[in-house]
Amino acid sequence: MPRNFRTTGYLGAAVIVMSIVLLIVFPSKTASKVDGMITPVIAFEFLETPEEAYQLFGAEPSPARDAMVAAMDLGNRLDFIYMILYTMFLFAFSTLATNESGMILPGVGRVIAIIILLGDVLENVQLLGITGKLATGGFECEIWYLGIFTWVKWGGIALTFLALAPLFSKRHYLRPGDRPCRHTRLSPRPHLARSPLLCKRDLLAFSCRHVHHDDCVLLHSPERRRAGTCIGGVWYGASVRRKRHL
Q1: pTM assigned to the model
Q2: What residue segments make up the domains of the chain, in order of their start?
């Protein structure tokens, strides 16, 4: 398996493990129900007023509130590790998608992943500031900044998935066991670069990178879907014969 696939897989596994850890650490109950929010940590991230903070944690000091604040602070400190892992995963996956598909748009996810990391760091700083001032009050400024950085983070995550969406479109979807021919990305002809070759993994002995783009017939849908396997510059199963000059 190529190294970039392994790296992305390891990062994905680490994100899953850390997600389970945070699910255990973060509190699961609040002092009172916050409308529109399912989990306490999401309700905390989307606070808009000090009153909502006291509704979440409790207005009066109590052992229950202290325990909830301690659990939330621990979760937010561990979240610094989590945010590094999941943004590294988004960066690695975007890089992998760009390299394997030849498309430019998924590569935008790498830039967005860095912005997400910065937003998440600053978001957690505000969250820790709010819990630190919960007993004395005066955390309106933290709530104001929290709204900005929270939307930077979640908006960045949404934009990353939008940048990756073309990979799963009807035109670019790769079936299990298929991979795009990397050589087409090096083609000086724009219409060739828009038509990736699909080569079977079990026939990589003939490796697509050793096949010249002028020796393969590049087909557009639906003809491309009816084509067979590209081996040594010949399309097997296609309804057309090999063309040396397109």
Answers
A1: 0.67
A2: 3-168, 178-236
